[in-house]
Amino acid sequence: MPIIQTCYKPSHIWKDAHFSTIYPSTLRKVTGIQYKRERIELWDGDFLDLDWSMAKSSIPNVKTKKKKAIVLPENVQPSKSLAILSHGFLGNSTRPYLLGGVKAFNAIGWDALAWNHRGLSGENNRLERITIHGGSDDLEAVINHTLSKGIYEEIVLVGYSKGANITLKYAGEKGSEIPKEIKKIVGISSPTDLQGSVDAMGKSGFYAERFKGKLLKFLKNRWELIDNQMFKEFEKYKFLDDFTNNYIAPLHGMKDAEEYYEQCAAAPHVPKIRIPTFILNAKNDPVLSESCAMLDVAKDSDYIFSEYPNYGGHCGFYASNPEGLYYGDKRMIEFVEGKIVV
User: Fold this and answer.
1) Is there a catalytic annotation at residue 57?
2) For position 62, what pLDDT does the model report?
3) CA dihedral over 156, 160, 166, 168, signed as positive or negative
4) How many CA atoms lie within 13 A of 117 on its CB side?
5) pLDDT tens for residues 119-134?
6) DSSP secondary structure string for all residues of 68-81
7) What is the widest separation between alpha-carbon atoms in the chain?
8) Average pLDDT over residues 106-116
9) Beta strand 62-63 with 154-160: parallel, antiparallel or unpaired?
10) pLDDT digits (tens, 9 = 90+) for 292-326
11) Torsions phi, psi of 18, nearest 5?
């Protein structure tokens, strides 16, 4: 498909890559979301925590004459449409960007399922293994569990940052064998070229240091799952790459960081996607390279739609509106509803 003509034109400070990345991540407020948690068991003895936000919960309640009794209007039916949303690196279902997506889908009558990667739901997992950038097996477990309910006729997969890479990798691995209920894919600020993303951040750049600090804190919170000698090594690591090279890659059966970036990247799989897929990356994203936008693939694909505005930062795309939704939220819904003009 041709590259999508962007209509994102922020003003003033929102053109700044760092402000448009950091402000939405730290100060954005999304209200009105109520989750119901469900835990599923995994093949390896571990678990994932899923947070559900049902579309009907956003419909005003109607009180009956009975004290405290509440019913829904007669014309309200359970949704047959579901968005499965995957968060970014060391995030969870409460991150502002993800809540914005949940709210946007609920507003059009869709249920939303935000799943928490291993160890990030507020409780440590049973196993040392984590959900890595290539963790499409964990996403597949969530999808299969959802399909087993037999409720949803229409499913959209949405991913942000690391979650976008996982989502796009899953869709490419499945190709034409993807479950028929899955109709569309959305990836926002996706590091499809992981090595390119690492290079864009720089080995000791601000964001690499920020991610390293978050990772070290995460690992310290699960010290009882980690070999004591290995745990002592963490304090010696100077760069984020050191953790990937010496701990995360070997823990998941890969030789080193180079092999991790190669095996976990979605880029080689994106050309094999066989359902409509929307990729929204920003040119001024401080942690992604241009190669992550998959522009060359989009030009030659019948399924890949790539929008690459000049601004937006990383999982930012700020926009001011009464609903509290950002450009990425609205653009995603426009794609799902077939309203994006190519």
Assistant:
1) no
2) 36
3) positive
4) 26
5) 999 999 999 999 999 9
6) T-EE--TT----SE
7) 66
8) 97
9) unpaired
10) 999 999 999 999 999 999 999 999 999 988 888 99
11) -75, -40
Q: What is the DSSP code string of 19-36?
A: HHHHHHHHT--------E
Q: What angle do CA 99, 100, 103 make, to 5 degrees?
A: 85
What ranges in the chain are assigned the alpha helix state H?
17-26, 96-107, 136-148, 162-174, 194-201, 206-220, 228-233, 240-243, 249-251, 257-264, 295-300, 327-336
Candidates 194, 187, 176, 341; CA nearest to 273 is: 176
The packing angle between helices 162-174 and 136-148, to 10°, is 70
3-state helix, strand, coil in the chain (%, to 5): 40, 15, 45
Domains and CATH numbers, the chain: 12-60+76-193+270-336 (3.40.50.1820), 200-264 (no CATH)
Residues 218, 85, 148: CA angle, nearest 5 degrees = 110
Contact call for residues 174 and 194 (beta carbons, < 8 A): no
The one catalytic residue in 161, 189, 197, 289 is: 161
Catalytic residue among 49, 241, 285, 329: 285
3-state secondary structure of 317: coil
Total residues belonging to the chain: 342
Which residue among the candidates 93, 241, 314, 329 is catalytic per the annotation?
Answer: 314
Q: Which amino acid is present at 339?
A: K
Assign 153 to helix, strand or coil: coil
Best CA proximity match to 281, nearest among 302, 308, 315: 308
What is the residue whose two structure tokens read 């720089």?
202
- Is 138 noted as a catalytic residue in this protein? no
Is 314 noted as a catalytic residue in this protein? yes
Q: What is the mean pLDDT of residues 168-182?
A: 98
Kindly report, residue by residue over 199-257, the tens digit of the pLDDT. 999 988 999 999 999 999 999 999 999 999 999 999 999 999 999 999 999 999 999 99
